[in-house]
Amino acid sequence: MELIKPKIITITDADKEDHQFIISRLPATVGREILAKYPLSNAPKIGDYEVSHDAMLKMMRYVAVDVDGAEIALKTQTLIDNHVPDGEALIRLEIEMLKYNTSFFGKDGSRGFLHYLIQKVSGSLPSIIKTLMVSLPSSFPQDSQPSENSKRP
Questions:
Q1: Residues 74, 80 contacting (CB under 8 angstroms)
Q2: I need a labelling partner for 11 at 20 to 30 A (CA). Which of 81, 86, 117, 138 fits?
Q3: Neighbours of 25 (CB within 10 A)
Q4: Could you tell me if 122 and 96 lie in one domain?
Q5: What is the domain count for the chain?
Q6: In this structure, are 52 and 108 located in the same domain?
Q7: What average pLDDT values come out for the chain (153 residues) when binned by 10 residues?
Q8: Other CB atoms within 10 A of residue 7 CB
Q9: Domain, as residue range, for 114
Q10: Are residues 116 and 83 located together in one domain of the fold?
Q11: CA 72, 26, 75, 45 torsion: positive or negative?
Q12: Which backbone phi and psi does 120 adopt, to 5 degrees?
């Protein structure tokens, strides 16, 4: 598989060491699938890890490393684990791929789609909390005065 518009980038791992990768543009249909899955499958408490994992594996097929002058595509989980040093570096690599393949995830200081999504989710939290607070009292026993038929302790 040939990379589309390859670009060499440097990713810093958890130990602050730099690693070079070659990232690529995604083919249109693959890009659409990945971009449709990424935002919500990675949202806390909403997401589905398997969907996120599958999207990551598919996207990493368009990332390569240079090994002695040969480009090795990271097309399997084993290749990813062998060439990406840690989870932090992998997440940074995923973010760079999203930035390179979209204009709405935010580039050059623009807030973009990711910021918009976070704002929408956090903006709805107060109304969700209000709804829950209103419904909570009805789920608890009501404090009431004992009736005339109640026995006193």
A1: yes
A2: 117
A3: 16
A4: no
A5: 2
A6: no
A7: 90 94 93 77 62 87 94 95 94 89 60 54 49 50 54 53
A8: 12
A9: 104-138
A10: no
A11: positive
A12: -65, -45
